[in-house]
């Protein structure tokens, strides 16, 4: 285990015990990645800053629930960030807008283990390479599903395909990614 990960695990554990300086450590070590996850979904810097604060309030109250046996600390944090950003979009009925011809990324209304898997992998070079190997429809659908916060229904409407087709593209794309990444 890397020294940085050990430090983050220790800081989360101490945060669970009510140590405010440890929460500051968690924030300093992870806020850049967490913020990037939020901005990618919300597409609004000011709203993203507010959501970032909300995420770390949640981290403060939920640190005791983190289980390192179930995943990495950054995956746990990104999942909280992603879900908080998606909830913000849904509360405000905000629709992510993209330029004509650009296919946005989608999200299903239910949490999936793939969310955590993709969140942990999204910045890796291997993921970027594997995404490029997917069929265009599958690649764009996955990006929209996991990084931009649209539901399967929203994406199907946007690209004018049946919902079943959209779900199939995402399922096949995820299978291709898992195969490519050896997961």
Automatic annotation (TrEMBL):
Residue intervals of the RNA polymerase sigma-70 region domain: 27-93
Cited SUPFAM superfamilies: Sigma2 domain of RNA polymerase sigma factors, Sigma3 and sigma4 domains of RNA polymerase sigma factors
Domain RNA polymerase sigma factor 70 region 4 type: 125-175
UniProt keyword annotations, A-Z: DNA-binding, Sigma factor, Transcription, Transcription regulation
Tagged with keyword Transcription regulation: yes
UniProt GO molecular function: DNA binding; sigma factor activity
Pfam families (alphabetical): Sigma70_r2, Sigma70_r4_2
One biological process term in Gene Ontology: DNA-templated transcription initiation
Domain of life assignment: Bacteria
InterPro entries membership: RNA_pol_sigma-70-like, RNA_pol_sigma-70_dom, RNA_pol_sigma70_ECF_CS, RNA_pol_sigma70_r2, RNA_pol_sigma70_r4_t2, RNA_pol_sigma_r2, RNA_pol_sigma_r3/r4-like, WH-like_DNA-bd_sf
NCBIfam families named among the record's database cross-references: sigma70-ECF
Family: Belongs to the sigma-70 factor family. ECF subfamily.
Protein name in the entry: RNA polymerase sigma factor
Taxonomic lineage of the native organism: Bacteria, Pseudomonadati, Pseudomonadota, Alphaproteobacteria, Sphingomonadales
